[in-house]
Fold each of these.
Amino acid sequence: MTPTRNHPERGAVLLVSLLILLMVSVLGISAMRSSIFANKVATGIQADAMTFEAAETAIAVAYGSMLQNNSLQTVFAPGHTTTTCIASGGSSDGSCGSNTTFDNRGLLTAEAFSYFAGYKALPGGQISTTAGGNLFVDYKINILGQSTMPSYNIENHHQQEALKRGIKPGSEIE
């Protein structure tokens, strides 16, 4: 004899377990999407930091190159601009080529542009308009560091001003 059941089975356990499975799946997908978004943000921050450092390196290399080569006198010429390409193998004068990269992985390009930005008389410096008179000045040189990461479409531009104290002949004072 088989026992009789008063309540026929309706699959309630199956329905509850399917709902729980659906909720766990939605939570899993949400966590995965959040993780992917956080990864993209972290990658973007890292790429931005890399381009920032490349631009700062370009400025430092350009300034160091000017001091080592004693080319400051050339930079003091009004309208003169010096371009320095910063590559993984070192730096060179002139613009970077299309295949020149800052890093070994080929992700970054970096250049520096240096130009004369005028001079500022020092307080207490004597001005003489007679022949042989001199003025003590701070020569201003602006150095623009520029770096790009084409794969992420990121550019960074940084400008710094360098001062070089010197004597400007009275005959050259405007």
Amino acid sequence: MSKVRSDGEPVERMAKLMAELYYFMAKEMVERMGSELGKESIRAAIHNFGKARLVSMKEEAAERGLEINSETYTKVRDMPGISWERNPDHPEDITYCPMQDMWTELGDQELGTIYCEIDDVLYKGFNARLDRPLCKTSGDKVCRFIVTEV
């Protein structure tokens, strides 16, 4: 079980709790449906979740008169990035992710890797391509986000 405490930073607590909920739901899907179908279902749910988030984010962009691109994505992103830490010398590198931290605590990075696919959906929805050659849920020391316009 997680060790989320009430005195922790609120955004980090919510991110960890969201990651924990995702983990238990995903784990249950794999256990009940089998690995292949379970992971396929998790992946579909994550992609649908990303598409649903895009609707609201694009609506906000339109209300603010902003073009749909990677710069706008950073302005209307619905998930706060307060508790994620970046390398100041390499801002494309995320050195701490509270969600990955929770999955490590729970002992299952593999299911977390599927969740991370949501970033591809979100960037693509803002006409950008995300290349992530390094990902903490895959055992790397950082998540490297290389974003280019398409």
Amino acid sequence: MPRVSASVEELELVVASPWTYAPGEKLYSTIAGPLGGFRCQLTVYPAGKGEVRNAISAYVRVLPPEKNMQEWECENVQCSIRVMSSIMGEEILKIRTHTFTPRDGRPPKCGFHRLVTFQELTHALGLLDGDSKVRVRASVSNLPFAKPRNGLQIDFSAELKPVRILVPDGPPLIFDQRILVARSEYFQKMLAAECKESSTGIVDLRQDAHASHQRVSAMLSFLQTKCLDQDMDLELALALQAMADKFCLRDLREAARCTLKDMLSEENVLHILSQVLDTGGDLEKLCWQMLQADGGLLVRQEDQLDAVIQQTPALAKKLILLGKRKMQKT
């Protein structure tokens, strides 16, 4: 079975106040990976399992493409699991390489019985209050795939079937349904034979706050070219990132985040952070690192703080906690 060595699946769960869970209680992430290939899922026990107490346990499970597949093997799959505090910049990372094979008919797993103790959560990650959230994030690389991940799997002998995409502020946009379903699992499910959208050929996005004519046009252009306009503004890049998350367009999400990283500056760091708060990605981490590295930045951006407090109270709280931590370290 062919491999795509550069592929990486990202899984994550956000756990509020892990010490409030009972031992053995577990949470599941969504399943990641391409349809028709090997997929994976993150399982977290916020308060431990078995003999482990007062610690977070976390595991990655591998799911084969066929539910009843009896014999299969995924060699040298690398699983990295990191736990991050609700204030970015502090994290604990553990990495393990594992060969997955089926056991007793159950999906195999790889992980850490004691990923991080509650004591480490307090001292290493700086969780200061009872409402603190912990983000557990796993990266899984070197999974085998049944087909190339980024190739357009299109049957060009199939009849061309256009899709009319309705937007709130302009004429409908018309796009090739074959490309749409090949690029997006979200649209693949929406345009399945049994769904209304498949029979009507209409996708109605008029109630989507992000789906303006300009933004959807930019999204469709990316689906065709795999490139973003280098002259786009900040608000369009932020909107494309949100649309990519909703429509399961990982390539678009990564392209939008790369664009936003290039745009990041002292003047817009608070605005960008308010839009990516609690996503756990590199962009959020860069924002926090910028704030931590320059103690006077918030003072210079004082005129933005009123808007932050009103529009994003969760960010205002974390900025206060960040200042509190700095005071404790000095």
